[in-house]
Amino acid sequence: MSMISSSPPARRTHGLAQDVFDFLVEQIRSGALRPGDRLPTEVSLMQSQGVSRTVVREALQRLQASGLVETRHGIGSFVLQSPAPALDFRSPVAKTQRDVVAILELRICIETESAGLAAQRATRQDLADIKRALDAIDLHARAGDDAAPYDFQFHLQIARATDNPYFVDVLSHLDPAIAPRARLDPASYMSRVNSEHINIYEAIARRDPEGARAAMRTHLSNSRERLKQAWRVGQGDAI
Questions:
Q1: Which of 23, 59, 154, 215 is deepest in the core (most CB within 10 A)?
Q2: Which of 196, 201, 159 is nearest to 176 (CA)?
Q3: Helix (H) or strand (E) run with residue 70 in it
Q4: What is the Cα 118 distance to its own chain's centre?
Q5: 135-160, pLDDT tens digit by residue?
Q6: Does the keyword DNA-binding apply (predicted)?
Q7: Share in percent of the chain as helix, strand, coil (round to 5)
């Protein structure tokens, strides 16, 4: 296995998970981690990057979604022999409220079509993965945990179901930290959007492309309006 640098990446504003993701992508692109190599363990990455297990797992999920690595249960994550090509751009940095709204508008365009294609192309396994992600959001929200990584995984699973790696690649570069998710009261917030997620899943499951597009557009448009409302009442950090 190739040796890699253990120095942590610089901390930027768009999220610790993106930092770890960028660090590992650079190791793969530079050849420090080669096809077939096993990635450092979660514990090793936690120590070298100075982050939590949740951050490491989210970064690994993004690598997996981008087609750069595969995870073998009980063994570890390995660099793929022929990684899927990744778009060469950095995650947009949302510095202002206007930036956040602009990125949400981009997500509406991308994910509306993603949902429609998923309704046409999803396999039985894709549907099971989307449902599993949906259940995880509800489980962690009800427990009072931060459900944001699971919410993002739900959207990634839908992108995967398009059978078009570029939907996954684009979405995986949009930092989930800028999505409108309440951190102050996750259980209460998720109870409000749970039905929207269910509508998306059910439209995909019944092979209804137009219904899936409409459900996704409604969900993200409502998310944009909820975020604006949170800002109006002085809860701008609840995203």
A1: 59
A2: 159
A3: strand 69-72
A4: 16
A5: 988 887 777 776 777 888 899 999 99
A6: yes
A7: 60, 5, 35
- Amino acid 223 reads S
- The number of domains in the chain is 2
What is the residue range of 54's domain?
16-79
Sequence-ordered alpha helix ranges (H) in 12-147: 16-30, 42-49, 53-65, 97-121, 124-142
Which of 76-90, 126-140, 146-160, 201-215 bottoms out in mean pLDDT, i.e. has the lowest? 76-90
Query: Which is nearest to 66 in space by CA: 140, 128, 159?
Result: 159
Contacts of 208 (CB under 8 A, 6+ apart): 119
The amino acid present at 46, given as its one-letter code, is M
Indicate whether 108 and 215 sit together in one domain.
yes
Q: Let me know whether 69 and 119 are in one domain.
A: no
